[in-house]
Design a protein that fits this description.
The strands form two sheets. Strands 3, 4, 5, 6, 7, 8 and 9 form a seven-stranded mixed beta sheet that branches. The chain has ten helices and nine strands. The protein is of the alpha+beta class and about 230 residues long. It starts with a helix and ends with a strand. About 30% of the residues are buried.
Length: about 230
């Protein structure tokens, strides 16, 4: 790990709960005073950090901080820092990645179907696709992944039988769409299909979206149509 990468990792860890001190960043990174001061001052100059009393605070949340450094060529090992980040930051990172590719995104949407409600962690849509995403904040793939996929397929199948409800909730008026179940985890692994459902590592989301046109025919999907709203 380079010195820059150590600084970035330490910053993400110490800043996730709000105000942090110079000493906490130094302790977490294990680096010297000159590098710490230069790093902090550069981020203040770039508008990323602000001074709060004797400490500092990031003006952007962890998922955007990660994106900020990745865009500048810094490698961020998501697996090694995942245990420090809260669940909602994992979800937010998924939303951000899909938005970067031109998808509209909603999260934690509950949809009434057949007298009950089903909830989707993230829904990313770009005509004609509606990706219904189950987000799993695992550092390793659980042995229950097949059960997770099975339950997710049931949820997607249930809304596919009454697509008007889902579409009205997300404001889609296409008249027809392809519902695609997806599971995204923290686990560092290549994308795999389980019962036709893509199980995608957060590290592979960009590649998954980039290659989507070429793999869509091999993915489990539900073609739906409904009366236009």
């Amino acid at each position: 790990m380079s010195l820059r990468e150590r600084l970035v990792k330490a910053l993400i860890i110490v800043s996730k709960d709000g105000v942090f001190t110079r000493e906490s960043l130094k302790r977490e990174s294990g680096l010297g005073d000159f590098m710490i001061d230069d790093f902090i001052n550069s981020l203040i100059n770039e508008g990323i950090l602000v001074r709060i009393g004797d400490g500092y605070k990031s003006v952007i949340p962890p998922h955007r901080l990660i994106k900020y450094f990745v865009d500048r060529g810094v490698y961020v090992d998501l697996e090694s820092i995942s245990r420090y980040l809260p669940w909602d930051e994992f979800e937010a990172l998924i939303r951000l990645l899909f938005e970067e590719w031109g998808f509209r995104v909603v999260s934690r949407l509950r949809v009434p179907v057949a007298g009950s409600r089903v909830e989707f962690d993230v829904i990313a849509y770009r005509r004609p696709w509606v990706l219904l995403i189950e987000a799993k904040h695992w550092r390793r793939v659980s042995s229950s992944i097949r059960q997770i996929v099975g339950r997710h397929l049931e949820k997607v199948g249930s809304v596919a039988r009454e697509p008007e409800v889902l579409m009205s909730r997300i404001g889609v008026n296409w008249g027809e769409a392809l519902l695609i179940p997806v599971v995204i985890t923290w686990h560092r692994a290549s994308t795999e299909l389980i019962e036709g459902v893509p199980v995608v590592s957060i590290y592979q989301v960009n590649s998954f979206i980039n290659e989507f046109d070429g793999i869509i025919d091999g993915i489990r999907s539900f073609r739906v149509s409904w009366r236009r709203l």
